[in-house]
Design goal:
With about 350 residues, this protein is mostly helical. It contains ten helices and seven strands. The strands form three sheets. It has a three-stranded mixed sheet with strand order 1-2-3, with no helix packed on it. A hairpin with a 4-residue loop joins strand 4 and strand 5. About 30% of the residues are buried.
Amino acid sequence: MSLRLEPLQPNSSKDPLLDVESAQLEVKKKDENRCCRCCGIPRKLGLMKYWFIQDACGIICAVFTYLLILYGIFAVTMVILLPYGIDFYTLVHGVLFNALAISATVAHVRTMMTDPGAIPLGNATKDRLNSLGLKVGQVVYRCPKCISIKPERAHHCSVCRRCIRKMDHHCPWVNNCVGESNQKYFVLFTMYICLMSLHALGLVVNHFIHCVKSKWGMRPSLPMGPAEMQDVFHLITTRWSTEDECTHFSAPATVIFMIALTFEALLFSLFTAIMFGTQVHAICTDETGIEQLKREKPTWAKQTHCMAMRAVFGSQFSIGWFNPLVTPDVSSGKTQSCMYSV
C-alpha cells in the first residue's frame, strides 16, 4: 500500500516522515505554559492533569465571567427578591434564577476543561499512517506546527497550539477552543446565560414598576448632615425609614445596583443570543464558523439537521441535551471514522 504524507507547506524539501521525534520534542517545548511559568498557579491547583489552556487573556476572561455570574446572583437575590420576604414569588424566581446560574457555570467549566478534539501531538509517523486504513495513494496532510496528521475539517489553533477537530473558533470567555467534543457545552453556556439575562431583565422591570411609587425620596431615619460631609459607605448601607418592599439597601444603592444589573443583562443577553443563534445555525448547516468565514467548499457529505444535532448533542433528543453534566456521544452520525481516529 502506498501512502503519501504531504506537508501543508508544499515548498518543504525535507521528507515529512524524517526527524519526527526531534520535531515532537520541539513542539512539546513550545507547548509550555506562556503566562503562569513563574507563579505555577495551575500546577498548584492540580489543573495540569486536565485539559486547561494556560493563556493569560483566557484565564482573566473566565474569572471575569464567574464574577459577573456572582454579581447577577447577588443583585437578583439581595437587591430584588430579598426585600419581598420569603413567599411564593421569591422562592420561584430565586430557585429558577439560581438553577440557571448553576447550569451556566457548570456548562462553562465543562467547555473550558473538556478537550475540544485535539489531535495527538507528533503522530505523523509511518506506523500511524499504516494503521489508518487509508486508500492507496490517498494524501494525508501534516500540520507543520504541531507535527500531527491533520484530518479533514481540522484547523490549527495558535492559542491552544493544537489542531482541533471541527474547530469552530477559539473563545477567550471560555478559555478554550469550541470544537467537536465541547460544542454542546458551549451552546448550553450561551443559552443559559441568555436565559439568566432575560430573567434578570424581567425582574428588574417588575421591581422598578412595583417600587417607582414608593417613598424612595423619603428622608432616612438617621440624621444626615451636609452632603459633602456624608460617608459614602453610610449612604449605601443605611436602611431607610419606609417599610415598603424596595428598601433592603438605601434607595441610591438600590438604583445603582439595578442600573448595573440592567446594563449587564442587556449586554450579555444580546451577545449570548447572537452566539447561540450562530452556533445552532452552524450545527444545522454542518459548517463550522471557520469554514463559513473562509468560505470553504464542503468536500464532505453534509448531514441532515437532525443528524448534525445528534453529532453535537449525542443520541436521540432527550432531556440530556440540556444537561451540561451529560457527556454526548460525538461519534453519532459520523460516516468516515478514519478521519477522526488519528
